[in-house]
Amino acid sequence: MQFVVTQNYEEMSKEAARLVESVMCATPFCVLGLATGSTPLGMYEALVHDVCTGALSFANVTTFNLDEYCGVAPTSAQSYRYYMNEHLFDLVDVDMARTHVPSSSCDAAEDACVAYDAAIERAGGIDLQVLGIGNNGHIGFNEPSDSFSVGTHVVKLSESTIQANSRLFNCVDDVPRRAITMGIGNIMKARQVLVLANGAGKAGIVARAFTGRVIPQVPASVLQLHPCVTVVLDTEAASELVPVKVDD
Ligand code: F6R
Question: In the annotation, is 67 catalytic?
Fold first, then answer.
């Protein structure tokens, strides 16, 4: 696990975009796993900037998003499909048919999960998975649990996630109680993982997830077992990481 500590949110975003671009350039028909939330917004902005200047193209890129709320229509401003269209897909030269966000439909959710995993496999697996981290250590919508999940599945959101995400809804009662998410198994199969975190609010969970015990009660801790993870932080999010002592 490699840590990159940057001065601030802008530098974290640029560093993350650089890493995404290096994988895109090195991998013909690159498959990206993408996240929503506040954390990667600056990274998407930097990627859009580079497409606009002609330095980057998404023409041959396939994307799979981590998660989506159940029962929120893709046209709703709160849906993750809407977020991705607004912040990336509508602004770059990606082929929309190659962008995938889990289905928000509650009907036949189990079939949709199986189909999502099959689509990832057909695309050749994920080259680079981008992740944020929840205050409770969730990645995707894999909430603290007694075991690590495997494939895409439907989850009941925890109270802390409902509270944290209520900022994007009119009121806490409007936050969906269920979501569909890639599993920990899907994330661990990605050839490379990029985790982003910024702000003092994430410092405790960053330290716990990446230097504490690997336990399903802290889902992100499983990333310690992945062979190729880069964690890009700002100084605040890195503030509780204890520097490793190097003996003389
Ligand atoms: C979003 C996702 C979530 C977020 C996490 C952090 O697709 O999978 O795990 O990455 O909740 O959210 P922010 O970035 O809003 O703090």
Answer: yes
Q: For ligand 1, pick from 32, 34, 36 the residue to mutate: most ligand atoms within 8 Å of CB.
A: 36
Taking each helix axis from N to C end, the angle separating 41-52 and 9-26, rounded to the nearest 10 degrees, works out to: 50
Can you give the pLDDT at residue 110?
86
Task: Look up 143 and say whether it is catalytic.
Answer: yes
Length of the chain: 248
Q: Which of 65, 138, 142, 198 is catalytic?
A: 138
| DSSP per-residue letters across 85-121 | HHHTGGGS---GGGEE-----STTHHHHHHHHHHHHH
Give the largest Cα separation in the chain, rounded: 61
For residue 14, report the distance from its CA to the centre of ligand 1, in Å. Answer: 18
For 83-121, the pLDDT digits (tens) are 999 999 999 999 999 999 999 886 778 889 999 999 999
Give residues (CB < 6 A) around ligand 1. Answer: 35-39, 66-67, 132-134, 138-140
pLDDT per position as a tens digit, 25-55: 999 899 999 999 999 999 999 999 999 999 9
Q: Characterize the bridge pairing of strands 99-100 and 2-6.
A: unpaired
Enter the pTM of the model.
Answer: 0.95
